[in-house]
Amino acid sequence: MTPPAKKTAPAKRHTHNFIDRNDEAFARLNDALFYFGELGMQEHRSAALMCDLLEKEGFSVDRNPSGFETGFVARYGSGRPLIAIHTEYDANPTNSQQPGIDEQREIVAGAPGHCEGHNVNAACMITAALAIRHAMDEYRLPGEIRIVGAPAEEQLISRPYYVRDGLFDDVDVALHPHILDEFRSDFGLIQAAAISVDFVFSGRAAHAAVAPWDGRDALDAVILMDNGMAQLREHMMPGLTMHRVMTHGGEQPNIIPARASVWWYFRGPTTESVDLLFQRAKEIAEGAAMMTGCRVETAIRAAVWPVLLTPKVAEVIQRNIEAVGMPEWTADEQDFARRLQKAAEKSQIGLRPAITPFAGPARQISASNDCGDVSWKVPMGRLWFPANIPHIPFHHWSAGAALTTSIAHKGGIAGAKVLAGTVIDYLTDPTLVEEAQTSFRAEIGDTVYRPLIPLDQPPPRSLNAELMDRYRPAMEAFYPAQLPVFT
Ligand SMILES: [Zn+2]
Predict the structure, then answer these.
(1) 298: DSSP letter
(2) Centre of ligand 1 from the C-alpha of residue 387, in Å
(3) Which fold, 4-191+306-476?
(4) What are the sequence ranges of the domains in the chain?
(5) What pLDDT was estimated at residue 1?
(6) 6 confidence band (pLDDT: 50, 70, 90)
(7) What is the reported pTM?
């Protein structure tokens, strides 16, 4: 039998050939997920389609990991190493956008939609997974691949539960593909820790005109908490951010609100800093409750660690990016990108002509991703693949306009090749796995992972259910008739 390292190049070629041969299936999968446009925890069609594709190709699929009905864990192969790929496929509320045009036009008025590209993330992951599985068979590669579908990233939900419940305990290296306009991999602390919390105040209802003295106004408590939080801002450490929406403020003006609530996000560079900010906010909430004669309860919706990417894993991904290279964009694609940039009032630089050179460590940004928890448990790499348009802001209508065009397809296919190639590197070269582990240990130092979510907390199954149920019937008219077939 040939030693595994000798199999690297042919096995990698095998995956790339598979992906090229299945470019139409990639596009169909990508576009189907786009038109499903499913919100977090309601990704039923998206998850079912991907599970069916994986099962058909011999993966054993768990369709309910950690109680997530729209999550999945698909396994193929056995033994070491164990390489996991995880990504998200949720859309956002009110982000419905017709693709392929350079003006804001909804597919279904008011409906959810993809305006970042998590549909491409998932198409990239599934296509790579199928390609790797074929190469594993063809070249009898030892090891296991674990494909993890992660619901509701937009509300930072699922992966902390997976990590808490041990899904990554035996993983050697984890990889996360995510759409961008660049082709690159980076390393270091790149995204923030976050805690998402409801503060629910309870008071006592009373007739607002006849007997206001009998009332204990929960909305007053929300407002006093807000004032307190505004005062706190001056004293926050640099790098900490917080933002909120008021989710309930009473029923009608002639009833003193007995119940009112506010939903806060706290973010910062470390879990400790975010936890401290949360504790200060709780004290302010208690103070507001005391001033108004109300009670306050908190409920954690989500809590995530900052994302930490392992340098040695980033190097392996980057070598594969260099080998695959930037897609060649046509004049039409460049023209569309410039028109869209103009419509979004951004500089009209078109699509990037080349991959981004390797550099780092990255500068930590204030946004978060629920894969942060994975990154403190096992060595993790992030692949940024070029399937959207430079300078277009995510969650803006313009970030949805390219997501079923040839730009998304070519960028996603290039991403799938890099992802498959990276996994083949790990399956065929044990020294790379060792390097990843050593590099990871040096990065985390003496930090010990502990879940930030409550240990007994179940997934929020009904999250977004009402919203999705309202729009799904109208959106179904746009579901594609032809589903992907990989061969
Ligand atoms: Zn995202």
Answers:
(1) E
(2) 13
(3) Aminopeptidase (3.40.630)
(4) 4-191+306-476, 193-303
(5) 54
(6) confident
(7) 0.95
